[in-house]
Amino acid sequence: KADPTKVLELEQAAEKALKAAIALDGSEPPRTHDLVLLAQRVPVGVRIADLSVDLVALSAALPSARYPDPLEPPYEHPEVLRLHEAAEAILRAVTRYFQAQGVDISALEPR
User: How far apart are alpha carbons 47 and 94 in whole angstroms?
Assistant: First the structure.
């Protein structure tokens, strides 16, 4: 069984990346955790629509991780891997967009 904190971190990484792309385009990111809505607002160059990621499942991870229901089963390892791949795909798409816009992303690289 997976630690709910890991799933929360995946959702948060995707959410913050999408909001950063919206902000880089000069718009105020909406105050929401809804990744589907955020993905609809990112600049076309981010190309989220080209990704085969389950934004609904990744969005649903936030409330279930922050406010776990004792009657709900914890995330199984394969589901966590699937959510990890989705978050990673979003981060890659946003990173490519930043690079295409001339943003120096060297400070964003893991150390």
Answer: 9
